[in-house]
Write a structure and sequence with these properties.
By secondary structure, this protein is of the alpha+beta class. It is built from two helices and six strands; from the N terminus they run E-E-E-E-E-E-H-H. Strands 1, 2, 3, 4, 5 and 6 form a six-stranded antiparallel sheet that branches. Strand 1 and strand 2 form a beta hairpin. The radius of gyration is 32 Å and the shape is rod-shaped. The mean pLDDT is about 90.
Length: about 140
């Protein structure tokens, strides 16, 4: 699984460690990690403190890869923030989509009601036609 993490130095152990900040749920969906459990790096791994990294961790908990997240963060800024896509904008769009969905549901219910009314009227007309036919045939 892929994570966004920050590199910190553990002065007590004289080692660098990763503090996981977010985990990737799907290609464009990340979840914030609230608990702050550090992952110690090997003593031979020397990194810049406070650096943001993308880390791939295997299901067994082993670090598969660590990459500098600078290019990834810049890509996010260029893709989303430079075009005005903010969390508030996305929230408003989600609300608009929900209102649209509710409106379509109401229209669909209204259409179904009208269809039932038309079917009932058609049956009434057919009954009247049959009634008239039977009256005409009994009069002759």
């Amino acid at each position: 699984m892929k994570y966004l993490a920050q590199v910190n130095k553990n002065d007590f152990l004289n080692q660098y460690e990763l503090h996981l900040l977010a985990s990737q749920e799907s290609e464009n969906l990340w979840s914030i990690i609230s608990e702050n459990t550090p992952i110690l790096l090997e003593k031979s791994q020397i990194m810049n403190e406070k650096m943001l990294v993308l880390v791939e961790i295997s299901p067994t908990g082993d670090i598969v890869s660590i990459d500098d997240a600078t290019d990834w963060v810049i890509s996010l800024v260029q893709t989303y923030l430079s075009s005005g896509i903010t969390p508030e904008f996305l929230e408003q769009e989600a609300e608009n989509a929900e209102q649209w969905r509710q409106n379509l549901t109401l229209q669909n219910q209204d259409l179904a009601r009208r269809t039932l009314e038309l079917e009932a009227r058609r049956e009434q007309i057919q009954a009247l036609e049959e009634s008239l036919k039977s009256e005409n045939s009994s009069d002759n």
